[in-house]
Amino acid sequence: MLVLAWIRGALGPGQCPLVLGGCIGLRGGEVRCAPDQVTWQGWPLSRRHQAQHLHPLRLKRYSIGTTVLLIVRSYGRPITGGDMGQFTRRQILLSGGALLSTTCVPGLARGASSAGIVRPQRMIRADKNENPYGPSRVALQAINEAMDLTNKYGVGHRRELVQLVADINEVPADHVILSAGSGEILKTGGLMASWDKGSIVCADPTYHDLVRYAGRAGSDIIRVPVDENMAGDLGAIRKAIRSDTVMVYLVNPNNPTPTIFDRDELRDFVLEVSKDRIVFVDEAYFEYVEDPRYGTLIDLVAQGHKNIIVARTASKIHGLAGLRVGFGFAHPDHIQKIRELKTGVNNVLGIEAAYASYQDMEFQDFARRKNRESMAIVEAMFEELGLRYVKSPTNFTFFETGIPVEELNAELREHGILSGRPFPPFTTWSRVSMARPEEMRYYVQTFKKLFASRIMDSAA
Ligand SMILES: Cc1ncc(COP(=O)(O)O)c(C=O)c1O
Predict the structure, then answer these.
(1) H-helix or E-strand spanning residue 280
(2) 362-386 pLDDT tens trace
């Protein structure tokens, strides 16, 4: 077995393994590699191609022509990253890092420059809390294989997926329901509350799906401002509960403020409050959190507590947002009610992808590691500029710029970055989702160039 390592600067992060892998592949060999080394954005590998031929990574298809071409490209362009042919090595060195960071966004850097910043070719999606690495390789392979089933009703590992997720969370399978994204469970929960003609209490700001839907269906929404640390205030929420309150909606970690509830305080609160009403806990970002103070409430559902509903999703760490897979965990009576009210049906691609992805622990570790890397890059900027921010255990963060967020977003968009929408009343705060580390380096460079002096001036 040959173990290969390479220096990033010598060739590009994608080129070196590709060239070496191509050579090995030509000799009939096989290459196995870590997940981050096969996500070659910008290279002539379609996702489908990756899924089919890179798991395990087989590069038999690479011809000498491709390999030679890549070597030529490597020599011609000292740093990888799409069309960077307009820069010489001297220009890159003289740019003192700003340009370099741009060039490290594979396949992104290109196009007109404004304010001295090279605009990415593709928009950087720092606005929707997605996993920038998309579905894992095994999920992509499962999607590929399921393509042939898409003309049929009721196929795929639906039952097995429910059983798998039940087993992972140590809850009986009849306490789990599959949904079209967790958004469907959220909306169904909101509908249940509004049919009972009751009010719903939630933190403010928080995720909108459940409360907005219930509000439109006639529920009174009682919003309780987050505390001075931007966290949900359980004491104030308890006080806000009225006799007609049929549901308390808690998002843990919260969105847009990425705060968590202390595990023990939350349990005490939920055990007390759920005696008379439903407590709905949205754990969309559960898999990202590594803080020991954090804990799920699914075990309370498993113990038979009746008025607790927990929602989870495959949209976040599993990177399956576009395939709409989510889960509700509740007592079988509530599961039955949700089943009667919900309108969505899962498609076979989502089911198969999730079934593969929930077994792929390596990908989740990888996504967490990359997320930490990206977060460190952004937090370093907050510290450097002295910006107030919420320390985040998730894949997005929230920070105060002092600039109206629409204005900030318009300028970022001009430079190829999508950033979180306004979250009143925090209209001079920005929610930024973690894209890939190389993209966040570009984000930081761009943000500083556009806003640092304005922020410093207003602070002075
Ligand atoms: C807290 C929270 N819950 C639920 C969702 C909905 O996710 P999905 O419907 O894709 O599962 C989101 C999406 O961003 C979210 O932030």
Answers:
(1) strand 278-282
(2) 999 999 999 999 999 999 999 999 9
Atom of ligand 1 nearest to the CA of 128: 14
The average pLDDT across 379-407 equals 97
Residue 143, Cβ density class (10 Å: 0-12 exposed, 13-18 middle, ≥19 buried): buried
- CA 302 to centroid of ligand 1, rounded, Å: 23
| 135 Cα: distance to centroid of ligand 1 (angstroms) | 16
Cβ of 327 below 6 Å from ligand 1: no
CA 261 to ligand 1 centroid distance, Å: 18
Point out the ligand 1 atom lying closest to the alpha carbon of residue 254.
1
Note whether 161 and 147 are within 8 A (CB). no
**Cα radius of gyration rounded to whole Å, the chain:** 24
pTM: 0.78
How far apart CA 57 and CA 235 sit, in angstroms, is 53
Cβ(283) to ligand 1 under 6 A?
no
Report d(CA 67, CA 59) in Å as an integer.
11
Distance (Å) from CA 249 to ligand 1 centroid: 13
3-state DSSP call for residue 400? strand
Q: How remote is the CA of residue 169 from the centroid of ligand 1, in Å?
A: 19
**Nearest Cα to 34, choosing from 320, 355, 365, 358?**
365
Q: How far apart are CA 267 and CA 443, in angstroms?
A: 38
CA dist 428 and 374 (Å) reads: 22
Which residues neighbour 222 within 8 Å (Cβ) at sequence distance 6 or greater? 199, 200, 201, 202, 240, 242, 245
Side-chain-facing half-sphere of 429: CA atoms under 13 Å? 18
Locate the ligand 1 atom nearest the alpha carbon of residue 313 and give its number: 11
Q: What is the pLDDT of residues 147-195, one digit of tens each?
A: 999 999 999 999 999 999 999 999 999 999 999 999 999 999 999 999 8
Residue 394's nearest CA partner among 269, 228, 283 is 283
Closest by Cα among 451, 455, 445 to 96: 445
Report whether 429 contacts 401 (CB < 8 A): yes
Q: Tell me if 350 CB under 6 Å of ligand 1.
A: no
**Chain-centroid distance, C-alpha 80:** 26
List of domains in the chain? 1-76 (no CATH), 124-134+362-459 (3.90.1150.10), 137-360 (3.40.640.10)
Q: What is the pLDDT of residue 131?
A: 98
Closest among 226, 285, 236 to 424, alpha carbons compared:
226
- Measured CA distances, 217 to 187, 242, 341 (Å): 10, 19, 14
